[in-house]
Amino acid sequence: MMLQGKVALVAGGTRGAGRGIAVELGAAGATVYVTGRSTRAQQSEYARPETIEETAELVTANGGNGIAVQVDHLVADDVRGLVERIRKEQGRLDILVNDIWGGEKLFEWDKSVWEHNLDNGLRMLRLAIDTHLITAHHALPLMIEQPGGLLVEVTDGTAEYNAEHYRLSPFYDLAKVAVNRMAWAHAKDLSKHGATSVSLTPGWLRSEMMLEAFGVREVNWRDATAKVPHFIISETPRFIGRAVAALAADTDRSRWNGQSLSSGGLAQVYGFTDLDGSRPDAWRYLPEVQDAGKPADATGYR
């Protein structure tokens, strides 16, 4: 396995992209610490069934070693304790994936700053930005103790797309743009230690919450295109997971340092596919088809 002996921390691995990333790192042989707030004994405010234990079990079932640790990444002491545990148990950290989010129930579509609920907007920024900085502050010193580490900051939208498109509200827009810039800034510091930092976005993600919102399951996801035709470009969480695994296994990954990447873009470089064998390239499709007002047609984009 290409990541045998490597240690990863997937911060925010309860569901969605984080779960997909954790599972694919496990499939590549890594030991993966999966963190989040939702456990079998205690749910977060999401009040959803997915848990960190379930993700860790999927990691192990796919060939890795999954370890679930309940952590609130807004609590610095919790994160400090997590990193101390990883140091004690593994003595190293090779891959840090910052996928902490938690804002799906907080943002309000197409609301100006004076219309949007202020408390929800500010909470969203704390969840999207403060959590990533707190985790990086505590985890990166362990990662840089040996050269070759990889930091992946997960966001929504490439830097190029986000620079030209307004993302729903000032709060959501800032949250997603900030993470791209954060990865670029970390790259300046990490390059001095032989480590690599990138931001990475999935395309239109078929997360548990998205499938539920559209009233479908993974087995019949295409039924949702009857109401939302452009959903035809969507992808599973495992697709971005394979992107992270490919980056982590690339001995020349430093060529990506500081860059904004996408699952679909990296699939064209590394040759991996989604679970159905396709390579959906959402961030090329969106401006060329959806935003251009063309009929939904993924031909040539997956």
Automatic annotation (TrEMBL):
Instruction: Identify the InterPro entries for this entry.
Output: NAD(P)-bd_dom_sf, SDR_fam
Any Pfam family from its record, for instance, is adh_short
Q: Which domain of life is it from?
A: Bacteria
PANTHER family on file:
DEHYDROGENASE/REDUCTASE SDR FAMILY MEMBER 1, DEHYDROGENASE_REDUCTASE SDR FAMILY MEMBER 1
- Check the record and name the NCBIfam families matching this protein: PRK08303.1
Name of the protein described by the UniProt record: SDR family NAD(P)-dependent oxidoreductase
Q: Which organism is it from?
A: Mesorhizobium jarvisii
